[in-house]
Amino acid sequence: MTELLPGKNAVIYGGGGAIGGAVARVFAREGARVFIAGRTQPTLDAVARDITATGGTVETAQVDVFDQEAVEKHAAAVAATAGGIDIALNAVSIMHDQGTPLADLSLEEFLRPIDGFLRTLFITSKAVARHMGQERPGVILTLSEPGAKLAVGGILGHGVSAAGKEAFSRLLAAELAPRVRVVDIRPHAVVDAPAAGSYTRDLFTRSAAASGQSVQQFLEQGLAQGTLLKRLPTLAQIAETAAFLASDRAAAMTGTVANLSGGALVD
After folding, report:
1. Helix count (H) and strand count (E) of the chain?
2. Per 3-state DSSP, what percentage of the chain is helix, strand, and coil (rounded to 5)?
3. pLDDT tens figures, 167-215
4. Domain 9-191+234-260 class?
5. How far apart are CA 190 and CA 262, in angstroms?
6. Can you tell me the distance from the alpha carbon of 205 to that of 25, in angstroms, rounded to the nearest whole number?
7. Are 32 and 8 in contact (CB under 8 A)?
8. Distance between CA 122 and CA 99 in Å, rounded?
9. Sign of torsion, CA 97 16 116 156?
10. Residue ranges in 41-183 assigned as alpha helix (H)
11. What's the pTM?
């Protein structure tokens, strides 16, 4: 079967996390040379071992994505080594509050996901964009959540940050066209993320406890039932979608959102 990403150079920030690691494994399987960066070397090493065990090519780097200078140096080093950057994904997670209404929500808690997610997205996008689109078109992939459009209480900071990420991606697509495509991926809560070490378990602990359920039950029996498909996306489904979007088969897509919410949102 023909690989989707033969000879492509892909940088994944948060590459040791649940989503970032899943995407890195699929990118490598599809022929990309993968560069994974993050703050925790052991988790990066675990992903790298999986990739090399299946014959893939991967390099790791311990990088704090809040350090703009460090991110820019890393991107420049990748470009110098590989001859450019074709694909970039920011899969960095920022732990934040969900479930607290305005009356009890502090300004700090409200701003934490907005500042955290958008700051890292700005830093990483700026660092990679200058190394894209010279010899062949580049692709920047971003991640958001249904909170960008949901009208529910208790997710003020989360929802605003998700909407900000989608707006950032759309506007960046206009700015970088035609040499770089920008596509946002909007999954719902990921059903198998807790088992993969994601912060999803901590994120939904309060809501699950309030409903008398475990986090896994809350995901499978609570959130999933609010979707048209009655199921939440898996890490594999997100990773496979990311590989398609990063490939030349999706060359006509930019400035848009790939909705993987299971029908929690119908665009």
Report:
1. 8, 7
2. 50, 15, 35
3. 999 999 999 999 999 999 999 888 887 766 676 667 677 777 777 888 7
4. alpha beta
5. 10
6. 28
7. yes
8. 27
9. negative
10. 41-53, 68-82, 107-129, 156-176
11. 0.94
